[in-house]
Each structure stands twice: as C-alpha cells, then as structure tokens.
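Lab manual, section 2.4: Encoding a predicted structure.

Procedure: take the sequence of the chain (211 residues), apply the prediction step described in section 2.3, and record the output as structure tokens. A sample record is shown.
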Amino acid sequence: MPSSLIDIRTNAGRVADALGKVAGKLERTVAKAINSVAKATHEHVTSQLDVRIDKPVPFTRRAYRIAYAAPGALAARVYAQDIQAAYLLKIETGGTTRVEPGKPLLMPFAQRTNANGNIPRGAISRALGRPTVFAGRPAPGTQPGVWRKPKAKRSAAAGRPARSELLVAFLKSRTHKPQLRFAQDAKDAADRNASKVADAVSALVDSYIVP
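Recorded output:
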C-alpha cells in the first residue's frame, strides 16, 4: 500500500529575514503612511467648511493644521488653530457667545456686507461719520445699534410716520446650533484612508521577500 505524503511548505523563513531587514525602515514607512491619512483628513475637513458654514472667510478656511507623525512619534493630529478654534467650537458643540459690556456682537441689517456676509472693516465708523447716522436707540424699547435717521420728506410723501432704519444691531449674546461636524467629518475621512498604513507596511515587507 503506497504511503500518502503531504508536503506543507511556507515562506516563513523568508518573511522572518525580511522583517529583520525592514526593521530600520518600518517606522519611517508607518510615519509616512500616517501622514498621508492626516493629509487626506485635513483636505476633507477643510473642504467641508464650505458645506457647514455659509460663506466662510479665508481666515476660517485656513483654520486647520496638521501635526505630523515621525519615527518615534507615530501619531498625527489634525486640529484647529487657537483663534479659529475659539469660535468654531461653538458651532461644533452648540452654545452661546456672550460679550463684555461695551463690546457687543454686531448683526448687520440694512448695512451693506462683503462677499462673505460680514461688515467691512471701518464701515461702521464711516457710517457714524454721517450726520444722518447715530448709535443707540431711536426710542425707548427699541433695539440698540447703529441707526439711520428717517427721511422725513419721503415718509411724508408716502403718508406714513417717519421711522429710523436699523443698520447694525448690537447684541449681548448669540446662540449657536451644532453644525460644524468636524469630529465626524474627520473620523469619516480617516476611516476611509486608514488602510494606507497597512498597505504601506505590507508593500515594504513584500519588497524584501525573495520569491
């Protein structure tokens, strides 16, 4: 009766040799792959600013930075710079912005705004330089802000009482809804690109294995 033989072979020896050779390059390869994931995440969350925020200004679009990984420190971080983080946090988690007395939040009404929907620098000072514009309240109980005095002749011609026009409102606080979704957008982008690390390590090991 002939004997049955099963010949089982592996390339374990070659893999072990390869691992010894790649040890010096492994951390550099992993760091590079992690940074690739971080860059993809940074690009995604930056692009999402235009989705989450109505007309973000260039300063806000430059909010995010990357702290890169390196051999010996195999972790990268995508974060918002301190100044931008201070106001972006309010629309990430929701909350209320309150101001100190004498430093109101400015909400434009009839005041012209720039392409980003903000009041141009110096616009309020220029407006207050006109004799028809004043800061305060036109009457008790009205909204404090920058007002334009009524055009009496036009109002009289229209047969209605003359009323001041609110240009900019002075607000003591503003409530923000959670809308930024930075944490979720960053996680989604990182998850989509996470395989880059394993792929890079696998390619490195394979390059040292002799068939």
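Check your result against the sample. The first helix runs from residue 12 to 52.
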